[in-house]
Amino acid sequence: MRPLVTPDEMRRADEEAIAAGTPAHVLMERAGYAVARAVLREATGRYGKKVAVVCGQGNNGGDGFAAARVLHREGLRVVCCTTFDPEDAKGPAKVHLDLLRQTGCPVVPFERRHLDCDVIVDAVFGTGFRGQAEGEAREALEAVARVVPDASETPPPRLISVDVPSAGMVPAHVTVALGAEKLQTFFRKGDRPMEVVVADIGIPVREARVFVVESADVYDSIPRVAPGDHKTSHGVVVVMAGSDRTTGAALLVARAAERMGAGYVTLASTPRVIDAANQALPEALKATVVQREVLGPAVLDELAAPLDRADAVALGPGLGTGIDQTQLVERAVAELQHPLVLDADALNALAGRTEVLAGRDWPLVLTPHAAEMARLLGVDIADVLHDRVATAIEAAERFGCTVILKGHNTLVAAPAGETAGSGGAATASVIPVGGPELATAGTGDVLTGAIAAVLARGGAPLDATVAACYVHGVAGAVAAERVGPIGVVAWDVCEALPEAIRRLRSTYADGHVTDEG
């Protein structure tokens, strides 16, 4: 997994690297070379190419001075524009400013006319900046922000930011992240495409709480087949979902578990759901649990035999809300000795009574979207959306289980101690796949079934959950390829799960990239 670091985490990593024997000015030199490489790529050449390096006061500006020197020596026409009095430069930034001046590269106060160039380097503010930009720095950043998307420029200059886009004000085309990508950059990319290049400059990041999941990370956890496999070796899933008023959600959960590779799936529900399942899911086992419209706590007694054989249980979608459903959820959490996935109405049943989650010894996965998370935590939805990462981590810590916060860049949070390199703290893993094609009713039910299927195969709950979320995101893209970006429905995503698994497995077959396909 690739870490996403906060300013404090990066500062500690910097300090550790320097304490281990790498001087700050050497790290700055390496940063300058990394930025220069990005500039050369974006400039598509050297001869006659003009570059404006806009530098602020501090280490970010020092990185800019180092980059300007490298580019000047490479033969580009470089001007270094400062947004502060250069005589105030200190420490390693002053070292590199002095070295830059020795090359004869112009170092001048910022003026708008210098932005008439091929590439602009934004080296004004780094990760340690707080508050609002002011004075000359603000004027420079506003000028850069106006020039870069200006169609009157032919073509407009390319913009490269050093470490982070300064103060969040400039629309960088490329950000060169030094040591590790910054949390603030990842979640503030907005609608404009921005490439992030992570440059290894010799600063090991040993502790982080947020990670981006990459396809190689899920390879060992996604379903596979082997000679000698049988139905039960692929996992047995029991789905308790649906009601006579809501039949579709239960079918989606069960179908997703099947398509995710579960060997047996038993759907336990009300008569109308089972009638629908007899037509749509011939492979699934069915259990009509009560001659009532909703499921209640007695379901667990009626399902004693299927539950005894189960490896994982999915509970919640389509249950509806009421006393019966609430008692079912509370009893399931307290009594079921299986990995348990709770979604939708099971989460609504827990709102205001999450204390029932305490003390559960068996793996538990909660799968809320933002509104459900707000109800679980007893906060406004605006509080959830304000900082999704902090919210997901808080929920994992409070409830002591794996928690998914669904949405763009779905988050999977785990309690303390479950992720290496976290310093023993609770963590969040970002699922970077899954686009707007998943923004349709029922895809959350698909995810619930997929998670249950992977959990049923064994392995760590966090790894299984992350893998299922990743496959689900890829399946959305596969479905969009098949039917087009408009009109994808949840059933399409179900049916795309096997192809998503195939793509991920074939890409890393035998530990080597063999097929992107």
Your description of this structure?
With 517 residues, the protein is of the alpha/beta class. It has 2 domains: 2-208, Rossmann fold; 215-510, Ribokinase (UDP-N-acetylmuramoyl-L-alanine:D-glutamate ligase), CATH 3.40.1190. It has 18 helices and 19 strands. The strands form 2 sheets. Strands 8-1-10-19-18-17-16-15-14-11-12-13 form a 12-stranded mixed sheet, with helices on both faces. A 7-stranded parallel sheet has the order 4-3-2-5-6-7-9, sandwiched between helices. Helix 12 links the parallel strand 15 (340-342) and strand 16 (364-366). Helix 7 (248-259) packs parallel to helix 18. The two termini are 22 Å apart. The relative contact order is 0.09. Residues 512-517 have low confidence and may be disordered.
Q: Helices, strands, pairings?
A:
Blueprint lengths: L1 E4 L1 H13 L4 H20 L6 E6 L3 H15 L3 E6 L8 H12 L4 E3 L9 E5 L11 H13 L10 E5 L11 E5 L2 E2 H4 L8 E5 L10 E3 L23 E5 L7 H12 L4 E6 L1 H10 L4 E4 L10 H4 L1 H6 L2 E4 L7 H13 L4 E3 L2 H6 L13 E3 L3 H8 L3 H6 L1 H12 L2 E4 L4 E5 L12 E5 L11 H14 L4 H23 L6 H18 L10
Parallel strand pairs: 1-8, 2-3, 2-5, 3-4, 5-6, 6-7, 7-9, 10-19, 11-12, 11-14, 12-13, 14-15, 15-16, 16-17
Antiparallel strand pairs: 1-10, 17-18, 18-19
Helix pairs in contact: 2-3, 2-4, 3-4, 7-16, 7-18, 16-17, 16-18, 17-18
Low-confidence stretches: 512-517
Number of helix segments?
Answer: 18
CATH fold name of the largest domain = UDP-N-acetylmuramoyl-L-alanine:D-glutamate ligase
Structural domains: how many: 2
Average of pLDDT: 93
CATH homologous superfamily heading of the largest domain: Ribokinase
CATH architecture of the largest domain: 3-Layer(aba) Sandwich
The top-level CATH class of the largest domain is Alpha Beta
